[in-house]
Amino acid sequence: NSRGSASLLKDTIAVAELSASGPFEGHDLLRRGFTSVKNELMPSHPLELSEKNFQLNQDKTNFDTLRNIQGIHAPLKLQMEFRAVKQVQRLPFLHSSNIALDTLRGNNECIGFEDILNDPSQSEVMGEPHMMVEYKLGLL
């Protein structure tokens, strides 16, 4: 048994990863870049992908139903309206609620997770306004 666990340990540690300083050396940022905990985690739950694509799948189902009921023009018109609404945004440093998109989808009367825990003051988007607009326009 002890020999089997030793061979497992030997198989999991790559020899190339060990440096001259030993196996307890710190992470080398210059050679390997920043570490990402997300990349080191175990595979995600099978439902995670389904939850990420929930709105896309729901829109697809609604478009199929609308096509079967009213014809091809109805989902095409709604998709064009979705595209037009998504293009209208505030300046890059301001939080956008996308209320028009929520109204088109019928989510304007629903209270969800993002409505309560999506505080704009804690947003990662906040920054130097002039630099963010110049970056968005491709001037930087």
Would you spell out the secondary-structure blueprint of this structure?
Blueprint (H helix, E strand, L loop, with lengths): L1 H11 L16 H4 L4 H4 L5 H7 L1 H17 L2 H15 L11 H7 L7 H5 L11 H9 L3
Helix pairs in contact: 5-6
Task: Give a description of the structure.
There is one protein chain. By secondary structure, the chain is mainly alpha-helical. It has a domain at 49-119. 56% of the residues lie in helices and 0% in strands. It has nine helices and no strands. The protein has helices at 2-12, 29-32, 37-40, 46-52, 54-70, 73-87, 99-105, 113-117, 129-137. The protein is extended and about 65 Å long. The relative contact order is 0.06. Mean pLDDT is 75; it is low at 1-19.
Q: How far is the first residue's CA from the last residue's CA?
A: 61 Å
Mean pLDDT, to the nearest integer, reads: 75
Rg over CA atoms, rounded to whole Å, is: 25 Å
Structural class: mainly alpha
Strand content: under 5%
**What is the overall silhouette?**
extended
Summarize the main sheet: none
Spans of at least 5 consecutive residues whose pLDDT stays below 50 are 1-19
InterPro entries: Ump1
GO cellular component, one term: nucleus
Keywords: Chaperone
Family: Belongs to the POMP/UMP1 family.
Key structural traits:
single chain, 140 residues, mainly alpha, 9 helices, extended, disordered N terminus, Ump1, POMP protein, chaperone
